[in-house]
Amino acid sequence: MARTELTKLAKELRRRVELSSESDWLAAGSRPAATTAPIPPAKNKEEGSRTERLAALSKKIHACRLCSLGASRLNAVPGVGSAEARVMFIGEGPGFDEDHKGEPFIGRSGQLLDKIMESIGLSRQTVYIANTVKCHPMKDPSNPEARGNDRPPTPEEMAACRPFLDEQINIIEPKIIVTLGASALKAMLGDGPPITKVRGQWREYRPAGGAAVKLLPTFHPAALLRDPNLKKDVWTDMKNLKKELESE
Ligand code: SF4
Hints:
Blueprint: H1 3-22, H2 47-63, H3 69-72, E1 80-81, E2 87-91, H4 96-101, H5 108-118, E3 128-131, H6 155-172, E4 176-180, H7 182-189, H8 195-198, E5 203-205, E6 213-218, H9 221-226, H10 231-246
Parallel strand pairs: 2-3, 2-4, 4-6
Antiparallel strand pairs: 1-3, 5-6
Helix pairs in contact: 2-6
Bound molecules: iron/sulfur cluster.
């Protein structure tokens, strides 16, 4: 084999090894053959002001007691990521770990979300991750130290917290919102077909006082931990997300 061909082969092998480690959240066999390069956040000349506006909003969230969740939370969990993010991932609400640390998606689901994002060149630093409610909904609000005490937020709690989420969207102006799971989908688009029917289909969300944003519903990472068969659907959604981001 000619020297140039050997060099080409070595490069290709190196690329495949890198890809397989990036996509190790997928089961063997459904691993993608697509390449991926890091997707940077959007550039914006108003970076300082966006960051400042998000920080000011976080302060308001930390002080908020508008709904009953504010009375039992240990920490409010406004969100994490880049003020210049082109993608916002929106989940249901903080759980035990998030309530204790004040950061969204840091338990097992969060670790899986990190891997999913990495597989298409995104990261916690380049996207923005938030929830439909910023405080931990608990079955027994008197016991925030108990694990397994989580429950979905009520429609009233989501409605009370909505202005914060809308303001985050209006500040960041993401190109795409990805909702994670049935609760987040319902919170954003209201009652409609179940997540199993609309997953992967492009929708639109218009925050109060802002412009419409493309919305892609997919499964929550916790659902993937319960049923690994769902990973291939999420991978399909992530490839579509990457394609959309690259189409700018
Ligand atoms: S969940 Fe939202 S509305 Fe309710 S107290 Fe927390 S920040 Fe305020």
